[in-house]
Amino acid sequence: MAQTGPPFDFSNLDRILDRVMSTPKYEVVVGYPADSGEHEGGGITLAELAAIHDLGAPAAGIPARPFLRQSVFNRRERYMRGLAADLRRVYAGQATLDYAYGRLALDAAAGVQEEITNPVPAFVELKPATVARKGSSTPLIDSGQLRQSVQGIVRRAGETK
Hints:
Layout: H1 13-22, E1 26-31, H2 46-55, H3 67-91, H4 97-117, H5 128-134, H6 145-149, E2 151-156
Antiparallel strand pairs: 1-2
C-alpha cells in the first residue's frame, strides 16, 4: 500500500513521554474544608451545613438538594475540555501546571455557585413553613454564606489537606 501522507516523526516521542510521566500528579477538590468556618446560624460548620443540604437529613425533614454533586456532574465535560486545553499550553511552555489546575479549581468553585443559584434539575421546593420563616422560596440561599464560601483547592494527589 502506498503511503499517502508524510511519515510520522517520532524523534521527540521519548522526550514528550518523559515529560508527561515526570509531571507531578495534582487533584482539584471543591467544597467546604473542615476549617472553612462556622455557619452564621451557629452550632455547625459550613462543611456540615453543606453535607446536610447536599445529602439531605430525612430525620430532620430536610430533603437532599445535591448542589455539589450536580455541579460536578453537569459541568464535567467543560472541566475536562478546559483542563485539557490548559495542559496543552503547559506542555507547549505557555503556562504552568499551577495555572492550569488553579483555573480548574476556580471554575469548579464558580460551578457550585451557579448550581446553588440555578440548579439543573431544580431542587425540591421549600416547605411553606420554611418559606414563611426565611421570607424566600429559594432553596440554599438565606444569607448567601454557603454560596460565597465554596472553595476550589489544588493539592498533590493523595494529600488530605
